Amino acid sequence: MALVRIPPTLRNEVGGARELEAHGATVGEVIDDLVERHPALRPQLFQNGSLGSFVNVYLGGEDVRTRDGLETTVDEASTIILLPAMAGGGQTRGSDPVLGMGLPRGLTPCATPRSGQRGV
Length: 120
Fold this sequence. Notes:
Blueprint (H helix, E strand, L loop, with lengths): L1 E4 L13 E4 L4 H11 L4 H4 E2 L2 E2 L3 E5 L2 E2 L15 E6 L36
Parallel strand pairs: 1-7
Antiparallel strand pairs: 1-2, 3-4, 5-6, 5-7
């Protein structure tokens, strides 16, 4: 069984688990087993019957797209990480619309730092 790490954005779909074990000889089979046991994951991971292009899958810290994709083989010691890309939403408070960088509360973008402060 491979270990699948579940990101916070998908934990509601798996009962709050951070990690789950799943069966399969390839990354694709492991994901299929996981979705079969946790059907609420399907709309979060699949698009038109295939794993969505917005889902990043890592095996041992390496993106499976640089290997054999979903056909990449796994063993019992394998750890798979699922990371669906997060779509951008509305502008958050304190974010810079040009750079798209969120700033900590209380900070605002400025062209020159005030005396004794570092630039943002």
